[in-house]
Amino acid sequence: MSADEACASGALLARANAGDAAAFGALVRRHQRLVYSLALRMVCDRHQAEDLAQEVFLQLHRSLDALESDEHVEFWLRRVTMHRAIDRLRREPRYPPAPLAEAERVVSESDAADPLLARRLRALLAELSPAARAVIVLRYQQDLDPVEIGRTLKMPVNTVKSHLKRALAQLRERLTSMAGAVQ
Amino acid sequence: MSDDDLERQLRVALKPAHPGADFAPRVLARLAAEERVPRVRLPRSQAVAGWLTFGLAASVLVAVLLAHQWQVRRTEQGIEARRELLEALRVTDQKLDLAYRVVNAPPHAAAPQHSGA
């Protein structure tokens, strides 16, 4: 982010905090992709993801005065989205799977080289525990390192690393067994 | 599948998605709707916390009352036991006194009956 952009985003935050709805709308548009993507990959359902993302932005609106910069907003949004998603998954462990047409739309959005494999991976991710899923999503969607993941999820770095290691091993094993079953 | 392949496929599978063009207007509409509704009800977590506090306070009060009642009963039982013990000591003292007096009575009181033999 350039100095001008940082200044502009700081001004946006200040205006939104002062009650400017248009500025808050701009703030939502700036971060909607981040929040929605995290929510979608966590709850694996477009409607639930949209509802969750909206709730996060409503909470952001109530918390604007505690946030100081755009980076702070981004960190806050990541943390709140993941914690809300984990809470939801613990309350209601599995959402009903998305209809096929909807699943295909998700795949087409991702421009996956192998859409079937991507779909399989997402289905396997949905079988991981909420905490392990959160670690994988933050690592491979947001490209965060274990220390940043630990800060976001309020989790010790060693726990993050152990979740990563175990989840990757589990995914690899399940993919291999699925490939074996197909052959 | 190698580690690199799996990580690459995960990045593809988890690629960010866009919520749709009218997402921000929907958030603003929901925000406006929430601000129109007066907040008379506590959020669920606060309501639960309120009930928990009330329940806890009621439990403590009941526990204090029960403990007080138990203490009063124990005190009364102690007083009664003390009274019974004093009564028993008093009776025992009387009996011992009587026995002492019988044992130590002068033998001449029985002598006239045997004097003619």
Q: What percentage of residues of chain A falls in helices of 4 or more residues?
A: over 70%
CATH superfamily of the domain at 1-96 in chain A: RNA polymerase sigma factor, region 2, helix turn helix motif
CATH topology of the domain at 1-96 in chain A: Rna Polymerase Sigma Factor, Chain: A
**Radius of gyration of chain B, taken over Cα atoms and rounded to an integer in Å:** 46 Å
- Note the gap between the termini of chain B: 132 Å
Order of H and E elements of chain B: HHH
Report the span from N to C terminus of chain A.
Answer: 49 Å
Structural class of chain B: mainly alpha
Quaternary organisation of the protein chains: heterodimer
Largest interface: A-B, 41 and 25 residues
Shape of chain B: elongated
Q: Your description of this structure?
A:
The complex is a heterodimer of chains A (183) and B (117). Helix content of chain A is 79%, strand content 0%. Chain A is an all-alpha fold and 183 residues long. Chain A has a domain at 1-96: Orthogonal Bundle (Rna Polymerase Sigma Factor, Chain: A). The N and C termini of chain B lie far apart (132 Å). Chain B is elongated, with a radius of gyration of 46 Å. With 117 residues, chain B is an all-alpha fold. Chains A and B meet through α2, α3, α5, α6 and α7 of A and α1 and α2 of B.
Structural key phrases:
heterodimer; A: 183 residues; mainly alpha; Rna Polymerase Sigma Factor, Chain: A; B: elongated
